[in-house]
Design brief:
The complex is a heterodimer of chains A (about 140) and B (about 160).
Chain A (H helix, E strand, L loop, with lengths): L1 H30 L1 H23 L1 H4 L12 H42 L11 H16 L1
Helix pairs in contact in A: 1-2, 4-5
Chain B lengths: L1 H28 L2 H23 L17 H19 L1 H22 L11 H31 L1
Helix pairs in contact in B: 1-2, 1-3, 2-3, 3-4, 4-5
The chains are: A mainly alpha (about 140), B mainly alpha (about 160).
Protein name (chain B): EamA domain-containing protein
InterPro entries (chain B): YdcZ
Organism (chain B): marine sediment metagenome
């Protein structure tokens, strides 16, 4: 039950991601793609800084005691957004979504299957393999 | 040109999956807010440097566009917090499929109604079928997780 609630929450968060992309596209056309991307990261960083200062000052220092590779998530985010803004005008939103999602699903199953990047190992069983096939069929239909 | 763009898009998707995995791990070690903060702070620094040196000037700036166009970041923050909270609890694959389902559902709505100043692309039968398939895939991954949890419980 708790799993289902978490998955539902993530689903709603995914809907928000599409709203963000829907806002970012027209904004990038007007002010430039890098500026639009900056607005996302800057506002996000400032809001979260406020949250941290007032609620969890003590935990912030722990970030810098972690292995370095664990801190690279912040480099990957801009790579994704910039690829998105380069591709959308060239191939359209639909094709952009299909390409991104294919890469995302395949990579996430690989990460889980081999326990890469410190993730817990979750072998790709029949259910998950079938799910991947169904997702590719769904993407092809889009 | 097209194959290069498509390869870039696959890379972008893989990068996104790697990021949720790394941030999930980091979030489990430090905290959800700390991990999300690091991602946004580093992203802001990197994109500022890129914008400062490589952006060609435009007539409109971030300060002159209508303010509602700037609230995208709020959705990004909510997404980041949700994904960092969820990955250690349900796994990268299940979290990713849930995100994809939400993303596609909402993008179909935006396309169908032409929300946020985007072009109208009405729903057709193949898009409905596609949504149904995705819900099926999400259920399968959920079942796979449940089955594994039962096995672990039985082993103890």
């Amino acid at each position: 039950m708790q799993q289902a609630i978490i998955l539902l929450m993530v689903l709603v968060a995914g809907m928000g991601l599409s709203v963000e992309a829907g806002l970012l596209g027209p904004l990038g056309e007007q002010v430039g793609h890098l500026s639009a991307t900056l607005s996302i990261f800057l506002v996000g960083a400032l809001l979260l800084s406020l949250v941290l200062v007032f609620t969890r000052r003590r935990l912030l220092g722990q970030l810098f005691t972690q292995p370095r590779w664990m801190l690279t998530g912040g480099i990957l985010g801009p790579i994704y957004v910039i690829i998105l803004t380069i591709a959308t005008p060239l191939v359209g939103v639909g094709m952009t979504m299909v390409g991104i999602l294919c890469g995302q699903v395949a990579a996430s199953l690989l990460i889980d299957h081999f326990g890469l990047l410190g993730s817990e190992k979750r072998a790709v069983d029949g259910y998950r393999g079938l799910a991947l096939v169904i997702i590719f069929a769904a993407l092809w239909l889009m | 040109m097209l194959p290069i763009v498509f390869a870039l898009l696959l890379l972008g998707g893989a990068v996104l999956a790697a990021q949720s995995s790394i941030n999930g791990k980091l979030g489990a070690q430090t905290g959800v807010v700390e991990s999300a903060w690091l991602t946004f702070a580093m992203g802001a620094v990197i994109t500022f440097l890129l914008m400062f040196f490589f952006e060609s000037p435009k007539e409109a700036t971030l300060f002159t566009v209508p303010k509602w166009q700037l609230i995208g970041a709020l959705f990004g923050v909510v997404y980041m917090l949700a994904i960092v909270f969820a990955v250690p609890r349900v796994g990268t694959a299940a979290a990713t499929v849930a995100v994809i389902s939400g993303q596609l559902l909402m993008s179909l709505l935006i396309d169908h109604f032409g929300w946020l100043g985007n072009n109208r692309l009405p729903l057709d039968p193949s898009r409905y079928l596609s949504m149904a398939l995705l819900i099926g895939a999400l259920t399968l991954i959920y079942l796979s997780h449940r089955r594994r949890a039962f096995r672990l419980a039985a082993a103890e």
